[in-house]
Amino acid sequence: MIIDASNLVLGRLASYAAKKALLGEKIEIVNCEQAYITGTKANIMEKYKAKRDRGDPFHGPYFPRQSERIVKRTIRGMLPYRQEKGLNAFKRVMCYTGVPDHLQKVKHETVKGANIDKMSNLKRMTIGEIAKLLGGRL
């Protein structure tokens, strides 16, 4: 299953992908930098900077700065990744920034309940903007 993350809410996308991965499907998510997180910019950045600054550089915990890794880490949080079934499900999830060459001509799906267009009055921020402000690349 290939999911296009453009204009989707990250949490809803992640829970959908985690459930499908636990059921045994291989999940590939493209355009991760275009997914949204709802909330004010100050609140979002405060939470993500707190996650980034937690621990120390030598012992962790480590929080990613790249947009595709932020999405994959969010999905990991919705899986029992310390158990064997969760670890196997997490290995079935792949996230990409943009659309890679081998997925260009394949049809991409979307998650109906996660579309941000229905929630047009919400304040929001893309994962790409968050990654850029954390010091990573899009």
The low-confidence runs, each spanning 5 or more residues with pLDDT under 50, are: none
Largest sheet: 3 strands, parallel
Oligomerization category of the chains in this entry: single chain
Q: How many runs of DSSP E, i.e. beta strands?
A: 5
The radius of gyration is 15 Å
The CATH architecture term is Alpha-Beta Complex
Q: How is the largest sheet built, in terms of strand order?
A: 1-2-4
- SSE class: alpha/beta
CATH superfamily: Ribosomal protein L13
Shape: globular
User: Secondary-structure element order, as H and E?
Assistant: EHEEHHHEEH
Approximately how much helix is present in the residues?
Answer: 25-40%
Tally of separate domains: 1
What's the level 1 CATH class? Alpha Beta
Tally of helical runs: 5
| End-to-end separation | 23 Å
Task: Average the pLDDT over all residues and give the rounded result.
Answer: 91
* Beta content: 5-15%
The CATH topology name reads Ribosomal Protein L13p, Chain: A
